[in-house]
Amino acid sequence: MTESLRPSGAYESSPQQVNPEWPPPPPYTPATAQPSQPVEPSHPARPPQPSQPPLPRRKRARGPGALLAAVAIVAAAVGGGTAYGVQELTGNDTVASAGSTGTTVVPSSQKGTVSGVAEAVTPSIVEINATSNAGSSTGSGVIITDDGEIITNNHVVAGASSIKVRTSDGKTYTARVVGTDSKKDLALIELEDASGLQAATLGDSDGVRVGDQVVAIGSPEGLTGTVTSGIVSALDRDVTVSTDESQGQQQRQQGGGWPFEYGGQEFNGDTGSSTTTYQAIQTDASLNPGNSGGALIDMNGTIIGINSAMYSASGSGSGSGSSSSEAGSVGLGFAIPVNTVKADLETLRSGSTT
Fold it and tell me: Which residue ranges traverse the bilayer (predicted)?
């Protein structure tokens, strides 16, 4: 049975293997010489292997498709090997880490550095100047689409009759309010005739832990693109802010701060009669008037919160009348979790103005 599987030319020659039209080999030809005979292209000659049985025919039929399927099955069994297997078979040099839990915006050479986060995310942060009959104020915002959708705080644009936005490259745009949610202190505005902007990457605030390093970027007191850093000090802090449109106008008269209430006390001015409470991320990254609506960022460069309030002892007290411009950061800042923003985004885009 095994002889029928031998390819031509694999073993010693025999008279039957010689083309009858050719003369027989001379008698002095060594026994090891092979006849000059065409070899079938599909059966290349191989050296004798008398001690090994021939491979089963079913194994010869395996092609690249079968190999890829086998790699995928093995990778699924061991876990974490799928990306590597596909890389090797396809020749793709860029493969996401199989254990990655989030997107990394910061280049690998600068990962984990404040400067790397600042360089990667600053182009996605804008300065907002809102004007009303009561005056004007400065806040911040985060670009979320390349054609100019921007998330900010409701109290930054509440009651505004005109909104101007300046991007990190110095360009100025006119913006309109698309939707607001005073209960969450969020607003969506849109730039006119904008394109090619760098949108920020929204992260996952549910994965944030106390002690995580964070970076804040905004325009405190009109100082565009100011970068500060710190850690996440606490989670799920109940922060109460004003929902009154008139309160937003009052903030402009007082220099652009944002009043809020915590633990039964009011800070940075009177919150007014109409308020809302949300659970915030607490950070010791320095926040000042003008940071409102800006970004709180993790060390991968993804947005984890929208900065919204700060504690200031000099501006504390209900109806104190202290100007918020006199208040400075003491390392107690608060940000709306980005998952709250993502959950509210479609409502804001629909034009809701609650």
Answer: 66-86
